[in-house]
Structures are given as structure tokens and as C-alpha cells.
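**Backbone description:**
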Amino acid sequence: MQEQSDEVLVARAQGGDRAAFRELYLRHARQVAAAVARWLGHNADVDDIVQDTFVRAAERLDSLRSAQHVRPWLVTIAIRLTHSRLVRQRRRGSILRVFGWNEPRSSDPRERAPADELLAALLRQPEGRRLPWMLHRIEGEKLEDVASSCGVSLATIKRRIAECEQALSNELGAWAPAAGAP
């Protein structure tokens, strides 16, 4: 049996074909999970967000502008859900810190220092810079797909990624990721 394109599967799924939507899930769930895991780390929330992503996608499949960009669209949904979850967790963490509760760490903080410094520096970047940088440099998405996911022009995405890289370089110096890194 010949593999059908995303465009064909999306059209079938928009027509109510559950098997086509299942095929889209099987085809793209791993990449969506990888994107979420890079934001959250490997924890139980990844599976929940992937599931929520595909539930939301099923509800909004008619809003997909271009069926050939289904993966960036799914990743965008997942990143937005992840961002919402992180905001809720930060709020909860702030409240818990007020009452003196701290979450124990299982790893040696000295080993995590470079990653923690990069994450902290990224979190200080405006989302308009951080999201394109992460989608392109960490997820390896093509610039055109990042622009489509973010709803801005290719030139704007290139500028935002460059601004993010400059800010990271200024802040982190030697720890900054290489500009040519995927």
C-alpha cells in the first residue's frame, strides 16, 4: 500500500475519516513529543500535551491553512499548550516557594549548569524571539516552516533568530550555542 501525502490525509480527515486522522497522529506524534520534551524535559506531562495537541488539532482541523504544513501546525499547537502549562507551573511554584516548599533535584546541579544557564537565558528572551529560535535551532525546523508556524514573514523569522542568538551570545559568552548549529 502506497503511503499517502499529508495533504491527502488532511483532506480525508477533514471529511470525517478517522483512519486518516489516526495516520496523521502516527506520522507526527513522535516529532510533536520531541518538541514538547525539549521544552519540558522528559516527564509525564509530555504524553498529556501530545494527546491534548491532537485533540485540539482534531477540533480545529478546518482552520489548517496549508495541509502541507501540518507538522509545523501541530508543533505550534503543542508549543502553545506547553507554554500555557509552564506558566501555570511557574505560578504554582511561586506560591509554593512563598510557603517554603522546594522541589528536590535528582541530578547534580554542577552537571546541569550549562543547560540551566541556557534555559534561563532563553526564558529571559521575549517569546517572539525564543519560540522561533527553539523551533529552528533545537527542533531543526526549516525557516519557512518556522515562519509559517509563527505567522510572520521569512525575513522577520531570520531577524528574530539572529536577535535571539546575539542576546544569548552577549549573556552567555562561551556557553552560547554556535550560530550554525541546527
Remarks:
- The chain has a mean pLDDT of 81.
- Helices lie at 6-14, 18-40, 45-59, 70-98, 109-123, 127-138, 143-150, 154-172.
- The CA atoms of residues 106 and 176 lie 25 Å apart.
- The two ends are 34 Å apart (CA to CA).
